[in-house]
Write a structure and sequence with these properties.
By secondary structure, the protein is mainly alpha-helical. The chain is built from 5 helices and no strands. It comes from Heyndrickxia acidicola.
Length: 89
């Protein structure tokens, strides 16, 4: 993780790139139809981002991903977290 780009991202975001890469690796073989797996990934993203995910939002994310067939990616989670945070929840 001595890459200057990674160090710059870590400095700007406060997020450890090693954690991000480990999470990305775990997503490659994850079963997104399994509720327990999806909840675990959401909790891990929340920890890495240091942003709590309210139970109501977690439930919406899990439903969206497991039932509606949405793919789990950082953009989906980030968008949903930002919408909730902007609404004062």
């Amino acid at each position: 993780m001595d890459n200057p780009l990674f160090k710059n991202i870590e400095k700007k975001t406060g997020v450890n790139m090693k954690d991000i890469l480990e999470l990305a690796n775990s997503l490659q073989n994850a079963n997104f139809k399994d509720e327990k797996t999806v909840r675990g990934i959401i909790k891990r993203v929340s920890q890495i981002a240091n942003r709590p995910v309210p139970k109501e939002l977690e439930d919406k994310l899990v439903q969206s991903i497991t039932q509606d067939g949405k793919k789990l990616d950082f953009g989906t989670i980030s968008k949903m977290m930002n919408n909730t945070n902007n609404n004062g929840k």
